[in-house]
Amino acid sequence: MRRNDIRNVVIIAHVDHGKTTLVDCLLRQSGQFRDAELKGERILDSNDLERERGITILSKNIAIPYRDVKINLIDTPGHADFGGEVERVVQMADGALVLVDAAEGPMPQTRFVLEKALQAGVRPIVVVNKVDRPDGRPHEALDEALELLAELGGEDQLDNAAYVFASAKEGFATTDPETTSPNMQPLLDLLVDAVPGPEVETEAPLQMLVTTLDWSDYVGRIAIGRITAGAIRSGQNVMLYQKDQKRVAKVGGLFVFDKLGRTPAEQASAGDVIAIEGLENVEIGDTIANAEGGTALPRLSVDEPTLEMIFSVNTSPFLGREGKFVTTRQLKARLEKELERNVALRVRQVEGSDSYAVAGRGVLHLAVLIETMRREGYELSVGKPQVVYKEIDGIKHEPYEDLRVEVPTETMGPVMELVGLRRGTLDVMQQRGDFSLLSFKIPSRGLIGLRTKLLNATRGTAIIHHRFDSYQVVEGEVPRRGNGVLISMVSGKAMPFALFGLQDRSELFVAPGTEVYEGMIVGENARDNDMTVNPCREKKLTNMRASGSDENVILKPPRDMSLEAALEYIEDDELVEVTPENIRLRKAVLGEADRRRIKRAGKTAAAV
């Protein structure tokens, strides 16, 4: 049977197509909140990192009542690197609200999330958002979305395809993009009428798959998921089926989602999305079932990671100055804690060392983890991102990605040259007004460091998106960084006099007064070789002065390196030192004499 008093809907789309803004609009028009409760924009992006970056990183659950129906909305990330969040929460939904930008149409991540939604058996509703854009082409965007639906195996959905046009920013939804409406009612009606209620077995034994974990300092882990069958009561004993064991546990607290938060409940039945407190060491993918006669559901499976970085403790001379957590034991505990909630992450200890290989979906996926850790007070060193290779039929394969670049037509040449140098092949080229839309297939290792080069080549006008496509046979080498670096040979404070002498042949990474140490990278050399320099040299003073002999020291501003830019910039023998207050680049081996000895030994070994 199906429940008609509830709708479970996941909102999926490409990054920046307006998911969180749409949820804001629905919350404001629901009439369930005071103005003080809905301050600002992107209300669900409550995480500091989400607000700073303007992207959704974690999926969130809210509930809106409409026409005596409770609509459970699940907001998901739109960035390909956080696809693991989408893959697991789509299991809780019966409908998917597929958001498409009226100008851009379906993008790489739209294809990825829609494919996952169709595999989970949910009913898609297409919402063409931003119809008020001057360059909008809503009917073409709708046609492209329906074509994509058919291409991904949703042909049976096309006969009665549900769709609506909307502007989340202006606060209206309509069936005709040429006319506006006063509110979002057409969309809410569509959610109630077109999305089926959850299919439930009320008389069957309890079954619920844990798809999300929350944390409370008072009660510990909180398991979130949708009840597939049966009912659950607060305080009852249940069987917890885990990866390698099963055990009896007691439901400490039971909550249902209501508006922006959760409210306590005495019981819940099949179809409800609930949160449970009191289950010790519960993990994502576990099944909560009847204590007697229950059975486990299939565990969650998500796509494998494609990129890996080596995490180790900070070993620089500035160790412990800024962070609270600096030991290997603390680093290990933090990574193990992250594995509980981040299902797309993999962690393994590097054999014969105290370092950990952390694998994820992309540079941004791992950079968000590193940024979170540094804000918590951790100090660590991170190595160059490396792709995860696979052996298929005895042949080495590497991940390939679908890269889409939208650029002004006059800057198309440098983009094609840069992508071609990194073994990218052009698939599709489309003209859209003054812009060209280029679609490439490129090895994942060719993407590392490419974004910065493309933005520089197009003067910041390129719009770049990529997603994992498939594993293919490894081909030749991808070009490395073209320039060497300036390496400090001393420890101390960087002086204006020394930096002034260096800036003519390099681009600096440090400002006057910055503390440096031996082996720290302080700039980029104009040539392709590394050079050791003394950035702490002061001008010698004498007691003689002459008119015109002193020149003004005018320094160019240093290059500001974000965490992602630093991770993509370094080479194999370099590290990014991450502390709560600073991001520094350094050589893995700090001493110049040690680096020369290793280089000589490498040459000798190669010759032998």
How is the secondary structure organized here?
Layout: E1 6-13, H1 19-29, H2 48-53, E2 60-66, E3 69-75, H3 83-89, E4 95-101, H4 108-119, E5 123-129, H5 138-151, E6 162-167, E7 172-174, H6 185-194, E8 207-216, E9 220-229, E10 231-233, E11 237-241, E12 246-250, E13 253-258, E14 261-264, E15 267-269, E16 273-277, E17 287-290, E18 307-313, H7 328-341, E19 346-349, E20 356-360, H8 363-375, E21 380-382, E22 386-387, E23 390-392, E24 395-408, H9 412-421, E25 425-432, E26 435-443, H10 444-447, H11 450-457, E27 463-473, E28 485-488, E29 492-493, H12 496-502, E30 506-508, E31 515-516, E32 521-525, E33 531-533, H13 563-569, E34 574-578, E35 583-587, H14 592-607
Parallel strand pairs: 1-3, 1-4, 4-5, 5-6, 28-33
Antiparallel strand pairs: 2-3, 6-7, 8-9, 8-17, 9-16, 10-15, 11-12, 11-17, 13-14, 13-16, 18-20, 18-21, 18-22, 19-20, 21-34, 23-24, 24-26, 24-27, 25-26, 28-32, 29-31, 30-32, 34-35
Helix pairs in contact: 8-13, 9-11
Strand order, sheet with most strands:
12-11-17-8-9-16-13-14
Structural class: alpha+beta
Number of E strands = 35
Q: Helicity range of the residues?
A: 10-25%
**Quaternary class:** single chain
Strand content: 25-35%
Poorly predicted ranges (pLDDT <50, ≥5 residues)?
A: 604-608
Distance between the termini: 74 Å
Q: Any idea what the radius of gyration is? A: 27 Å
Averaging pLDDT over every residue, what do you get?
Answer: 85
What sort of overall outline do the alpha carbons produce when their principal axes are compared? Answer: globular
**Alpha plus pi helix count:** 14
Main beta sheet: strand number and arrangement?
8 strands, antiparallel
